[in-house]
Write a structure and sequence with these properties.
Elements: H1 10-19, H2 22-44, H3 48-61, H4 66-79, H5 83-92, H6 94-111, H7 119-124, E1 125-127, E2 133-138, E3 143-149, E4 155-162, E5 165-166, E6 183-186, E7 191-192, E8 203-206, H8 212-216, E9 225-227, E10 239-241, E11 245-246, H9 249-259, E12 266-270, H10 275-281, H11 285-303, E13 313-316, E14 323-329, E15 335-343, E16 349-358
Parallel strand pairs: 2-12, 5-10, 9-11
Antiparallel strand pairs: 1-13, 2-3, 3-4, 6-12, 7-8, 8-9, 13-14, 14-15, 15-16
Helix pairs in contact: 1-9, 2-3, 2-9, 3-4
Amino acid sequence: MKKVKKFPPPLLTIALASSLSCSVIADDVLLAEKQLLSGLKAIQTLSVDRALEDFNGLSERYPNYKLAQLIKADLLALKAGQKSILDKVHQKNPKSVAKLQDEAVVRWQFSQSDFPNNSAFEQYVLKTAQQPHLVLVSLSESRLYFYERDASGQMQQVADYYISMGRKGGGKQREGDLRTPIGVYHIIDLLPDDTLPDLYGVGALPLNYPNEWDLAHGKTGSGIWLHGTPRDTYIRSPKASRGCVVLNNTAMERLLAMYRLPFETPFLIVDNLNNLQLEQQASNNQEAKDLVLLEVKKWLNDHYIGVDWNSVSVYRYPDEKDLLYVTFPANVENQLVHQYWQRGDNGDWKLVIESQNVNSGKKV
């Protein structure tokens, strides 16, 4: 990966805002997915003409949307009684067709999921500090959830988008394994469009992988970003990157132009959402959270003079048993403290890793 460089934050925002207003960007993202799901539902009910109407509209509006083009061609071939031609095309390009079909399956399954949209947030976010935004990626759903703090100080989900991940899925361990890491990270920089190859689309937000927990457990690799797609592609298949999280360019533009995320914005990447676990925790979830937070707060009061509890964030660390990630501003100006807490056999929480790093305070 290229070395991360610093660029003036406002430049990309101005360039993007000059071409499309944020409201139009938002409408385009919602419209495309709504029309896709409408077409897939029509196929489920064997309403071929209705499905063809949806996919014809999608392919005309987004000519680089390969899934829409494929399904449109399939429907036209079926209507014309040319299934043999359809079979030949699929047999000639089995890998490409399979990847596009995977996207259709993932998107449809997500639309039919019985998980509430905030289930991952409730499962992993115990307490947020005063940061204005939080990003949560659920690999099992191929979905990015975006949260913004409202006027009352509560985090509210304001957007969610389909994403692509590493070709081998989640759970990155070493450099070159083509997996997306699972953990709690932070946005650390902006790489604008004009500094990147077309592969990365309209911009990239690098993350701080490997973090201190990753390094302590021998994980290697670097260059894990949230970025866009090549301009000849509307969106990539569910597992298509070398480990990065990939949005389509329209959604990426919205994050960059509308929200201008501060560096150090929390970026959680989780995998499995356990429905049974959620049900079991439902009755005592808040009580369990309160007990954990009370223990962390007491320790901080005893060991850090003047720490404002409102500036402390606490997360359950994904894919790890009984691990917390805690972060807050250090006494040294423009530095953040990063802590990892693990629960022992006796049930007590113990600090196992602590570090500090510079917090730039800049926005993308």
